[in-house]
Design brief:
With 383 residues, this protein is of the alpha+beta class. The chain folds into 3 domains: 67 residues, no CATH class; 52 residues, no CATH class; 239 residues. 49% of the residues lie in helices and 18% in strands. It has 17 helices and 9 strands. A 5-stranded mixed beta sheet has the order 7-6-5-8-9, with helices on both faces. Strand 8, helix 7 and strand 9 form a beta-alpha-beta unit. Helix 8 packs antiparallel against helix 11 and helix 14 crosses helix 15. The chain is elongated.
């Protein structure tokens, strides 16, 4: 291919070509990428027709680029192939080429992987969010490799899931989460439209969302609520309480379902006051999706934070072979690389055709909260 390009620029060898734009200028040692490794080759050289300057060969520039090596290193590492075994995962190229190759040592692969994951993290945290029309936002804080990471994923009007960003800190506090959400706003995300925010119940998450978004509609994760209540109960009682809570959440009437859980909390007051208090805390917000009359196919997605948790599980699975975590930066790099890989596996959410109806319901919910029901034009004139 390089010789063909030289012939295109300089004409056939041994013949004078008055229209040539370059002349041959010998050869030199070079390196190209082949099958995840670098292979030494002899590359031809050309200079401009007036011999003023050397001209680059597009084919050599393409095949000598190390960008592909970085992507392959990240791909192999995320597939749980260690740096020691990196060479075993490459395509065979023959013993002669293998003997003339380089770039497969542990240190070389590690350097390329670090550079690739740094790029993945930078691209994730700098992606333009201007044209993103989000209907729902899920934020969750998880312990990733011993570090507290807060991850956010958005669901747009077409049902496509978008990893938005990740931040690392010592705890899941309001300052940390607010900084993450402010970063979304600075990158162009619209925060003026009503948006459904599905959270795990942490007060820091709710306060941060309310501080950044103009009209957030908070929905508490029902699965987190069930798990939190069960922590206060012995196993036998916990199974019965979980069964009743799930039945209440399946009730098509949110008022009746909330009433059933209020009654359950009263029953728990005497023997298990901690469980009763946990059940009452933020109970109304666990029925937000039901009050918005979201159809069941879409409601199954929005009643919990499973979307963001499954994304985190993909990140954890890809990094399962890592034994030594040096810093929070390393955790962020691995997490960002995992999010990029998880995005490739994403499908549109179930019931995505109902998201436009959800947008209408959110607008009506916010309008009802902002404008009192009894407010009339006469009152406006009087005011």
């Amino acid at each position: 291919m390089m010789e063909h390009e030289v012939e295109t620029l300089a004409g056939p060898k041994g013949r004078h070509d008055p229209d040539r734009v370059a002349v041959r200028h010998g050869s030199d040692d070079g390196v190209v990428t082949l099958g995840g490794r670098q292979v030494r080759v002899t590359r031809p050289r050309v200079r401009s027709a007036d011999r003023a300057a050397e001209m680059p060969l597009a084919t050599y520039d393409c095949f000598s680029s190390t960008e592909l090596l970085g992507r392959m290193a990240m791909e192999k590492m995320l597939a749980k192939i260690s740096t020691r075994r990196y060479g075993a995962g490459l395509e065979p190229v023959g013993t002669a080429v293998e003997a003339n190759s380089r770039g497969t040592s542990r240190s070389a692969v590690s350097r390329r992987f670090v550079a690739a994951t740094e790029t993945a993290l930078a691209e994730l945290m700098a992606a333009d969010l201007t044209g993103l029309d989000l209907v729902a936002l899920m934020v969750d804080g998880v312990n990733f490799a011993g570090h507290c990471c807060v991850v956010a994923v958005g669901i747009d009007i077409d049902g496509v899931k978008h990893p938005l960003g990740v931040v690392e800190g010592d705890t899941e506090n309001a300052t940390l989460v607010t900084g993450l959400l402010v970063g979304f706003r600075d990158r162009g995300l619209c925060v003026t439209r009503p948006i459904l925010c599905v959270l795990d119940g942490a007060k820091a998450l709710a306060s941060a969302v309310k501080a950044v978004f103009d009209h957030p509609v908070i929905a508490r994760c029902q699965l987190h609520k069930i798990r939190n209540v069960k922590r206060y109960l012995p196993d036998k009682v916990a199974r019965l309480v979980e069964k009743r809570m799930r039945a209440a959440y399946r009730n098509p009437d949110p008022l009746a379902g909330q009433g059933d859980l209020d009654a359950l909390a009263k029953e728990l007051d005497r023997a298990h006051p901690g469980a009763a208090g946990s059940l009452r805390e933020g109970l109304a917000e666990t029925f937000t999706v039901a009050r918005l009359q979201v159809p069941p196919t879409l409601a199954r997605t929005l009643r919990s934070t499973n979307v963001v948790e499954s994304m985190i599980e993909i990140c954890r699975d890809h990094s399962a072979n890592v034994k030594r975590w040096e810093s929070g930066t390393m955790a962020l790099r691995w997490c960002a690389a995992g999010l990029a890989e998880a995005k490739k596996q994403f499908r549109r959410v179930n019931g995505h055709m109902h998201l436009r109806a959800l947008r209408t319901a959110l607008n009506e919910h916010v309008a009802a909260a902002v404008t009192p029901p009894a407010y009339t034009a006469d009152q406006e004139v009087a005011a």
